[in-house]
Design the sequence.
């Protein structure tokens, strides 16, 4: 379960050995990925999308609003990572193919405004996933820990992943909420902790 440490950062110790195995299973050579992480647990890696998971890549603030909708009003989320000012929501395989057409249909009905362009990574795409740990003293690049980290860590061998309909719902709700929210972001965007025990 993801917890919050005293300085307000999300504690990536929530990445369990089962979660690491799930991530590694997405790669062509899972044993090589596991061996790399065993030797360098703070090394981010590039993994292919489309079979184990898809990824929906959104601007960080909008992604925070989506997560708020998913956890406060919906079923929760699958694993979520922050990467270079954006948020990566791990989704069920096939989501990257289906979600854009659902969003296009939604927007053509003039029922939603303010949805930023979403990048959907599926078959043929790959994403950089954060390392399982940030506590490797031998890491030559501490800046990687700042630009790539888990917000909701993978903690099971078969995590629940939202599909395109759930992410469409969260996207539309987030866009509607954005219209009502001040242009000033909350003062502490990293303070909220999501209770993964609610995940379905």
Sequence:
């Amino acid at each position: 379960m993801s917890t919050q440490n005293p300085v307000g950062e999300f504690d990536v110790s929530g990445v369990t050995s089962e979660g690491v195995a799930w991530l590694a299973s997405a790669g062509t050579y899972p044993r090589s990925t596991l061996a790399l992480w065993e030797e360098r647990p703070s090394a981010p890696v590039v993994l292919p999308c489309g079979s184990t998971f898809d990824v929906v890549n959104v601007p960080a603030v909008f992604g925070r609003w989506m997560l708020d909708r998913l956890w406060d009003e919906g079923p929760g989320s699958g694993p979520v990572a922050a990467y270079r000012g954006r948020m990566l929501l791990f989704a069920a395989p096939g989501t990257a193919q289906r979600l854009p057409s659902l969003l296009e249909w939604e927007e053509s009905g003039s029922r939603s405004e303010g949805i930023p362009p979403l990048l959907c990574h599926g078959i043929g795409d790959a994403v950089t996933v954060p390392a399982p740990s940030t506590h490797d003293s031998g890491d030559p690049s501490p800046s990687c820990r700042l630009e790539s980290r888990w917000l909701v860590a993978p903690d099971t061998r078969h995590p629940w992943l939202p599909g395109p309909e759930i992410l469409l719902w969260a996207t539309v709700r987030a866009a509607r909420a954005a219209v009502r929210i001040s242009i000033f972001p909350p003062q502490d965007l990293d303070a909220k902790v999501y209770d993964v025990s609610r995940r379905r």
Q: What stands out?
A: Residues 1-12 have pLDDT under 50 and may be disordered. The helical segments are 17-24, 30-39, 60-72, 95-108, 143-147, 164-180.
